[in-house]
Design goal:
192 residues, Immunoglobulin-like, elongated, 3 helices, 24% helix, 9 strands, alpha+beta, four-stranded antiparallel sheet
Length: 192
Amino acid sequence: MKQDEIIRKALSDTPPVPGELHGRLVHAYANRKPSHRRLYIAVTALAAATALCGAGVYVGTEGHFEDVMNWFGAVTGTTYEDATEELKITAVPTEDGIAVSVALLTPDKAPYPYIEQLAISDYTLKNKKKTVAKGTVPAAALTDTGTEILIPLEAPLVSGTYTLTITCFEGSAKGDQPLPIKGKWTADITVS
C-alpha cells in the first residue's frame, strides 16, 4: 500500500470526524509539501561538526595545559601541549657541541613567567643518513627573552648538513614539579 492509502485507511478507521473537517484534513494531507526535517538535521549536524573541527584546529595552534592521569584516572601531573608557535630555536655548531638559542615569542603568557630554568627533555640530531645524537640536556637559566643551552657531543661534527629536532622542553622552578613543554621545533645546522 502507498503511504496515502494507509493514512486514508487510518483516517477512515478512526471515530467519525465531521464531514467538512474530514474533507479539509484529507485535502491538506494530499496537498502537503515534502518535509525537510532530514535535510535540516543533516545541515545542523554538518554545522556542528564544522564548529567542533574549527575549535580543534584553534586549540592545535595555541599552547594549552593538559592533565597527566594514571590508569585510575587520578591526575598525577600537568603538561603544556602545542607550544611550537610560542618558542623559536636556532642552533649553531661549536667546538664543544651545539649551542641552541631558545627565544620566547610569548614571554608574558603562562607558563613562561613562572619558569626559572629550561632544559631540553627530548632531542634528535640527524644527518641525511642516520641519527647522530639524541637524548636530554640539563637545564639552563631562563630570562625574559629566552636562554642558551649547550648540547654536548662526544665527537665533533663532520662537514655536512644536520637537522636538530626538539620535541620536548622541560621548565622548572624552585619547589615546583617540572613541566614538560611539548611541540616540534627544528633547526638546520651546516658544518663546513
